[in-house]
Specification:
heterodimer, A: Aspartate Aminotransferase, domain 1, 4-stranded antiparallel sheet, 13 helices, 36% helix, B: alpha/beta, Aspartate Aminotransferase, domain 2, Aspartate Aminotransferase, domain 1, 3 domains, 16 helices, 12 strands, globular, GDC-P_C (chain B), EC 1.4.4.2 (chain B), GcvPB (chain B), oxidoreductase (chain B), Probable glycine dehydrogenase (decarboxylating) subunit 2 (chain B)
Chain lengths: 449, 490
């Protein structure tokens, strides 16, 4: 078998062994004790040539129903948006994707500047002072924010709304075990965080209050009201998780006095790819700048006074501070942040607003049509691009039926809350057409009757 | 062309002109309604975010120019130690972009994504076979995330045994910074064990630091000095004997594929960096993927859900009462896992073993040819990478940083410098197996030239780089007066 990624020839090998002064390459492995050496071969499949492997994997991919073959109304944290062609062209430039963390600024200005621009765009959208180079995803970014709030305020209790994404909630529960932070879950009422319960639970030991805006049900949380409750405790922080697309039309959390805003930039230029990799973002205030997890890029000048960019404030990070670091995070999602930057640049000031607006418009249409068809809209508050409908029947069975009509149905809310059995979370983005929505209403309506 | 010059290069915001567009959104095909009334005035954004208003060509030129101001593996040699900057196969990129892999939603019914689940399952099995572990989870997003996941499992294991006093995690002084950081984040105290003059963990010191409070020892093998911990069996028995567990940091797995497996060395929990050993591209800093493998006694603590097969159908099992919970939304960085899987299937057992053979051969060849001009702190066979010290050059007034900057003039990304922290003026070189002998020889010749320059014309090295688009950056200014975003001047 030939291995096209391995350039070593027999002649090379002979010369190199001679240069090293050994007889064969096994000598170089003589420090591996006999007792731990692998006898025999690795038990994995034999190698395959490019053509046949591509054929096999194309067939495997072909087994998956996908967002191109079907019309999707599935969201719940991962959205099917239009991705401009230029995005993939830019991120396919191998100077970007085959580089690593820009440790050598002289030959990494491209990546550093791209990250600096990403940081700026996130600040603009969220209304915050500072944003980092990206996080793994929205869920882990939120969990890091929770731990940051506990560390900063030296308080060990956080109040987390049950109207955040259930998987973000699960990740928070895992992340707080290390520092020993107590999570109090705040119920939702009418599809939004129960502010009364929030008020009751909030006390001087509360490090932060965590809400999602718009929340998991698509509802727009009353951030002004929540902020005024948070303000009754001097040190308590307000953390929000936000779909950044929605902030093209909604008042950004920064204007409501959020201390940390996180979320996922998947909505900008990143395909669903079965849940990852996506692109978490992390934005905060100037005050918390030196507590931020992950990489930060800053502007500076070179010896001749030319503008340039470097990784900065690294004294926060694991490679300098080791066990005293603000987080153990090392990598970021640079390539996906680049994809999002290209998508955001393409949309620009006007396009992003328009795209967000269209999501609201189209969702409004679907809501109205469903209502007309006699389907109950569970929460009637202001929304962005998701609504909850009550179909009073097994959603998984219904989704199976919808698949036969070429439709990927919405998220089964019974999965996370038994009070919502028979309810479906439906997402509508700018790419859903009137015709597709009308078909959805018809099919769901027929199955509902 | 602007990217060829060394003048100030514009930010995309500085190209912006009012009302210029680069987008093409679908038309609104439904009756327009007054959404502001529905949302409520306080929640309708008043001022627009200052995003650039640029045309499509402007965006393409801008990012093309940025790409030309960036060095990747495809641009030239990138011997950045501990990062395994090997070739990123183009086929992997094509496979990851197949619609059936890239455009599937994590909440689709499992029946509709059996192809994706088959790939994930097969990848888990392959990684288990490669590491000698019993079960693998693909959920962690990156190496450091895998470290924390593994430590949380070790914590859960001890707690399940009523062992609440195991508060310490031991890391060697040569360890990567993520090891002690992950230990802290998982709620442990990081304790350091010394290296001896061989560059290996000092067994006597290990015996001293291991006690009834030891939760685990974290180790890379080969270690961060590129040396195989040949006392691994004894280390395992010391740690296990005290009731502790062994954690394997897979950052350096590229050295031993098909030669030795962490599971056979006595490790209990292992993480892998698929973006290193298994060619997931580094992406300018990520995304990565950090699967974790465990022995059977840890299986019940794995993050949930677990991918299993029931009646010929791949399904997720959420009923895992002892699980440490979720470490990430959804099922891991699937797109990166597809690339790693494609690579493993391309190489097979024979190819992967050659990978390690050649990675080690390349590193030893370079080390031996460079040892006359540079100090070699540990004179023994290395594995996939080796450490030089710039001590000799430092006496001439030339620092390792200077030599790294001088390498930029020859078109290389320099090796990792000043790491590991227990070696003075360290240079950590990892050639990888995908580089040809000609590339290695050229690099060696250039390194020897730099050593000569350090003796004969040190200012040439001290003032380097001379040919890059920008010179050395004022990092102190960046940290003292942080400018972390662009702000439009009024």
């Amino acid at each position: 078998m030939e291995f096209r990624y391995l350039p070593m020839t027999d002649t090379d090998k002979k010369e190199m062994l001679k240069g090293i002064g050994v007889q064969d390459s096994d000598e170089l492995f003589s420090d591996i004790p006999e007792g731990v050496r692998l006898k025999g071969d690795l038990e994995i499949k034999p190698p395959k040539n490019e053509y046949q492997l591509m054929k096999e994997l194309t067939e495997l991919a072909g087994k998956n129903i996908n967002l191109k073959s079907h019309t999707s109304f599935l969201g719940a944290g991962v959205y099917d948006h239009y991705i401009p062609s230029i995005v993939d062209h830019v991120i396919s430039r191998s100077e970007f994707y085959t580089a690593y963390t820009p440790y050598q600024p002289e030959i990494s200005q491209g990546e550093l500047q791209a990250i600096f621009e990403f940081q700026t765009m996130i600040c603009e959208l969220t209304g915050m002072d500072v944003a980092n180079s990206s996080m793994y995803d929205g869920g882990t970014a939120l969990a890091e924010a929770v731990n940051l709030s506990a560390g900063q305020t030296k308080k060990k209790k956080v109040l987390v709304s049950k109207a955040i994404h259930p998987e973000s909630m699960a990740v928070i529960h895992s992340y707080v075990k290390g520092p020993g932070v107590e999570v109090i879950e705040i119920d939702h009422k009418d599809g939004k965080t129960d502010v009364k319960q929030l008020e009751e639970e909030l006390d001087e030991n509360t490090a932060s209050v965590v809400v999602q805006y718009p929340n998991f049900f698509g509802q727009i949380e009353p951030l002004d009201e929540i902020r005024s409750i948070v303000d009754t405790q001097k040190k308590t922080m307000m953390i929000t998780s936000s779909n950044p697309l929605s902030l093209g039309y909604l008042t950004p959390p920064g204007e409501f006095g959020a201390d940390i805003v996180v979320g996922d930039a998947q909505v900008f230029g990143i395909p669903a790819q079965y849940g990852g990799p996506h692109c978490g973002y992390f934005a905060t205030t100037k005050k918390l700048m030196r507590k931020v997890p992950g990489r930060l890029v800053g502007q500076t000048v070179d010896e001749e006074g030319r503008r340039g960019f470097v990784l900065t404030l690294q004294a926060r990070e694991q490679h300098i501070r080791r066990d005293k670091a603000t987080s153990n995070i090392c990598s970021n999602q640079a390539l996906n942040a680049l994809a999002s930057s290209v998508a955001m640049s393409s949309l620009g000031k006007q396009g992003l607003k328009k795209m967000a607006w269209m999501n609201i418009q189209k969702t409004s249409y679907l809501k109205k049509q469903l209502q007309k068809r006699g389907i109950e809209i569970v929460y009637d508050g202001p929304f962005f691009n998701e609504i909850v409908i009550n179909l009073n029947q097994n959603i998984q069975e219904m989704n199976k039926e919808l698949l036969t009509k070429g439709i990927i149905g919405g998220y089964d809310l019974g999965e996370v809350d038994e009070n919502l059995n028979g309810c479906m979370l439906v997402a509508v983005t700018e790419i859903r057409t009137k015709e597709e929505m009308d078909t959805f209403v018809k099919e769901v309506g027929d199955l509902h009757d | 062309m602007i990217f060829m010059t060394n003048q100030d290069f514009p930010l995309i915001f500085e190209l912006s002109q009012e009302s210029r567009t680069g987008f093409s959104l679908p038309e609104l095909d439904v009756p327009e309604v007054d959404v502001d009334e529905m949302i409520g005035e306080a929640y309708v954004r008043k001022s627009e975010p200052n995003l650039p208003e640029v045309s499509e060509l402007q965006i393409i030129r801008h990012y093309t120019a940025l790409s030309k101001r960036n060095h990747g593996v495809d641009s030239g040699f990138y011997p950045l130690g501990s990062c395994t900057m090997k070739y990123n196969p183009k086929m992997n990129e094509d496979v990851a972009r197949l619609t059936g892999f890239s455009h599937i939603h994590p909440y689709q019914p499992v029946e509709t994504v059996q192809g994706a689940l088959h790939l994930m399952y097969d990848l888990q099995e392959s990684l288990a076979a490669i590491t000698g572990m019993d079960t693998v989870t693909l959920q962690p997003a990156a190496g450091a995330h895998g470290e924390w996941t593994g430590l949380m499992m070790i914590r859960a294991y001890h707690e399940a045994n009523g062992d609440y006093n195991r508060t310490k995690v031991i890391v060697p002084d040569s360890a990567h910074g993520t090891n002690p950081a992950s230990a802290t984040v998982a709620g442990f105290e990081a304790v350091t064990v010394k290296s001896d003059e061989r560059g290996l963990v000092d067994l006597e010191d290990l015996k001293q630091v291991v006690d009834e409070k030891t939760a685990a020892l974290m180790l890379t093998n080969p270690n961060t000095l590129g040396l195989f911990e040949e006392d691994i069996e004894e280390m395992a028995s010391i740690v296990h004997g005290a009731g502790g567990k062994l954690y394997y940091d897979g950052a350096n797995l590229n050295a031993i594929l098909g030669y030795a497996r962490p599971g056979d060395m006595g490790f209990d929990v292992v993480h892998l960096n698929l973006h290193k050993t298994f060619t997931g591209p580094h992406g300018g800093g990520g995304p990565g993927s950090g699967p974790v493998g465990v022995t059977a006694e840890f299986a019940e603590y794995l993050p949930k859900p677990i991918l299993t097969v029931e009646n010929g159908l791949y399904v997720f099992d959420y009923d895992r009462p002892q699980s440490i919970g979720r470490v990430k939304p959804f099922y891991g960085n699937f797109g990166i896992n597809v690339r790693a899987y494609t690579y493993i299937r391309t190489m097979g057992p024979e190819g992967l073993k050659k990978v390690s053979e050649y990675a080690v051969l390349n590193a030893n060849y370079m080390m031996r040819r460079l040892q006359e001009e540079f100090d070699l702190p540990f004179d023994r066979h290395c594995k996939h990478e080796f450490i030089l010290s710039g001590k000799r050059q430092k006496k001439l007034g030339v620092r390792t940083l200077d030599m790294a900057k001088r390498l930029l003039d020859f078109g290389y990304h320099p090796p990792t410098i000043y790491f590991p922290i227990n070696v003075e003026e360290a240079l950590m070189v990892e050639p990888t197996e995908t580089e040809s002998k000609e590339t290695l020889d050229d690099f060696i010749d250039n390194m020897i030239q730099i050593a000569n320059e350090a003796r004969n014309e040190p200012e040439k090295v001290q003032d380097a780089p001379h040919t890059t688009i920008v010179n050395r950056m004022d990092e102190t200014l960046a940290a003292r007066k942080p400018v972390l975003r662009y702000q439009k001047e009024d």
